[in-house]
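Handout, tutorial session.
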Amino acid sequence: MSAFSGYLVFLFASFAATFSGAAERQVLQQRLAELTGTFPVVGDFPATNRLHATLCLPLRNAAGLSNLLGRMYGPRSPDHRRYLTPETFTEQFGPSKDDFAAVVAFAQAQGLTVSATHSNRTLVELAGTTADFERAFHLRLRL
């Protein structure tokens, strides 16, 4: 376990800010079962272990982003090689300020520490104990 050193990364492609719906929990549980079903369980993760995780929030306006990329990389397009600034990209395609704030508030309300955020609002780095993460995300971490 020392090689693992208590570091986990969670990537949630479509994290719901409230994370209260049964449908979201069911989909997550099914996907986790598919990913981990073949591994033998050797025990529970100690509840007091400190963990670090990164939540990845989905981008907005996927169709608009796909269209923009096609124009930026299409050699015949007037938008060819006209790239957006990071700030413009964030405003057009990053998670909204309200959604990002809701995720941060959710994490803090669950007793997790927000250890870092990113200016494009796509990543929220969290820290907490195994028990904190299990309670917040309605899951059980096992070895």
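The second record follows below. Compare its token runs with those of the first.
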Amino acid sequence: MADVASVEFGEAHGRQALTIKFTNGQSVGPVGANLIKVLDGTGASKGDLYNNSVKNPDERLMKAGWNWNLVESDGSQGVHNPTFVFSLLDLAIDNLNNLLAGK
């Protein structure tokens, strides 16, 4: 199994999706978050990423993805409301950094 180099937000068929890039150069995606299975420490399935995130009190990953897709799909590059766009992206970045730091 290859190590993960990066995870990118996107969309697939109108749904939130992720593209996983591995250190060996391969990538998978975009795959809808509803199709990505979440496993517990024993390898047992806990369902899909989207529904686990929505039901879980910590929804930061999926919210950050939603915010990214909103800005990316807008097409104006934030020109129409830059204050909103910067605040949306700053919040998403802060939340993901906190999530990665275990906060």
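Points raised in discussion: The longest strand covers residues 4-12.
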